[in-house]
Amino acid sequence: MSDSPQPDSSPRFRWIGYLLIPITILLVGYFIYISAAPGSPLNQLTESEAKLIENMRSLDEPDKLDALANAPEYFYQSVLKDIPEPLDGSDSALERVLREMSSAEPDADRIAGLVRQIEIDKMETAIKALLLSDEDKLTELAVWLAIELAQSEPEAALRLADDFPTEKDWGHITVNAVWKWARKDPDTAYDWVAKRLNTVRRSAHYVFLEMTRDKPEEAYRKLRLISNHHTQLQGGRGVIKALAEAKQPDTRAMVDFIMDQPESIRSNLVYNLFSNYLESDPTEPVVELAQALAARDAELAQKAYGWWAGEYAEDHPKASAEWSLQLANPEDRSRTLEPVIREWARNDLKAASTWLKEQPNEPVYDYGRYALVRELSKKSPQQAIPWAESTVDAKLRYRALYLAASQWAKASPEEAIAYVQATSHLSEVQRKQALERLERYPRKPKRD
Fold this sequence. Notes:
single chain; mainly alpha; about 0% strand; elongated
């Protein structure tokens, strides 16, 4: 007999093994129950709820529908799907339940819970059932459901859009459905839109957006086939957005595309193109874009860049002013500064004034000074006078001086007229014109 040590088989180790066996059986049984319980484990069905489901399954169909209408929404998965669809074309079980749920005091939140569990092939039925109610919340739910349907079945969603009571709902569903369709098959989506140009103009934006990302030349060709002005514009906006959002945007291609479009939509497309650079860092692309556009249409380039600079100046005034000075044409630089300084002065008059004081007294800053005069004149015309006097261009200086003097004259016409009579910054012709106009302001009666 061996003298080697024997394993310890004392009771304190054996009882652990005895306990593990029933615990394992309980856990396995629990998970089997959870996986099989109606309504998924998230619903945490109680024993009474599970029993209620079984009782409902045993009811005749009419009683079952009545019971479902007042049951929690997750009961749908367990009971409603068991009811066969009618073969005679009458209302389906889902339609009858939804109608019953929405007939008295509709609980849109509860119905939303039920609808979210509906399979794709029953969504159309659910939408039609919801539209039978005049309740606004249920119509909103139907819109939401139609947009959900558009994710996988855009053509079905478009068919249903015509059943909605308002043009707003119809348009919301149509635009979403066409966009989803265009992502999958832009050519087929285009064919659908092309047959309805008078009613689905907004949808053209998304069709051409997706088509340009995939086949730009085809998008250009098809856009030329459209004669409707509004659809041309929406389609052109889609093309521009796709070109601007490319990994490496081709500035010249964007400008060439715009200039090839009818003149009636050209300026709108330019403004849309510039607006793509309002939320990004536009240091290089927007200046390059303005230069390229100026080579084709200088006036349009200046107006569009001026608009963009004014909008961008709301959050980035100094940067916008400095980028405006990068334009090649001195007149463009000067005119573009006007909306920038105007926006800057509205938000921070002191900062705008300080920046202008630091700049050399050159004509390129004239429109910036004029913009500052306009803002200062509203509060303190006398403080605006020195800025008007520093304007280099004689015609613009006259406009700035008269603007400040006319605001001054509203409070004290005598002082404003005296200034105009004495200033050396006006020609005699300009002085005469200004005095004649200022004489129209009523003067305060003199006291005895």
